[in-house]
Amino acid sequence: MTVIIWHNPACGTSRNTLAMIRASGEEPVVIEYLKAPPSRERLKGLIAAMGITPRELLREKGTPYAELDLSDPSITDDQLLDAMLAHPILINRPIVETPKGTRLCRPSEVVLDLLDHPVAEFAKEDGEAVRREGRRGA
Question: What are phi and psi of 121, to 5 degrees?
């Protein structure tokens, strides 16, 4: 199974997601999207695969969101894509792609639904315990 994570190593949620993927026995393709941002078509494809809008993928905290006035509802999806491509930090993370689907993994345990053999238990960096409910990985 190919797993791709659009990752920011400075983000705790992204680091936890990557660690859960690896603890589940997968070695993902790691794309540090701030260094290698997606193309416009790739970003549109990721958004479509997640079934969300560009606005739902916007990150506000620690970004130029406010200075660019991106809360303005009259800003079109194309304009939001332009902003994300010009300032990749506006793209919320981590995004994980697997044959089971593509999701914005916030919180990080969302990734468990995308893996073939998800870990049953995991401790996040801050010590928070994650326990997978229902079917356990084989």
Answer: -140, 145
**How is residue 30 written in tokens?**
């790691």
* Closest among 30, 19, 25, 50 to 130, alpha carbons compared: 19
pTM: 0.92
Q: What is the pLDDT along the chain (138 residues), one digit of tens a residue?
A: 799 999 999 999 999 999 999 999 999 999 999 999 999 999 999 999 999 999 999 999 999 999 999 999 999 999 999 999 999 999 999 999 999 999 999 999 999 999 999 999 999 999 999 987 754 443
Q: How far apart are CA 94 and CA 138, in angstroms?
A: 25
Catalytic residues: 11
The pair of three-digit structure tokens given for residue 39, joined into one six-digit string: 């193309």
3-state helix, strand, coil in the chain (%, to 5): 35, 15, 50
Domains of the chain and any CATH numbers = 1-33+93-138 (3.40.30.10)
Category of 39 on φ-ψ map: left (φ > 0), alpha (ψ -120 to 50) or beta: beta
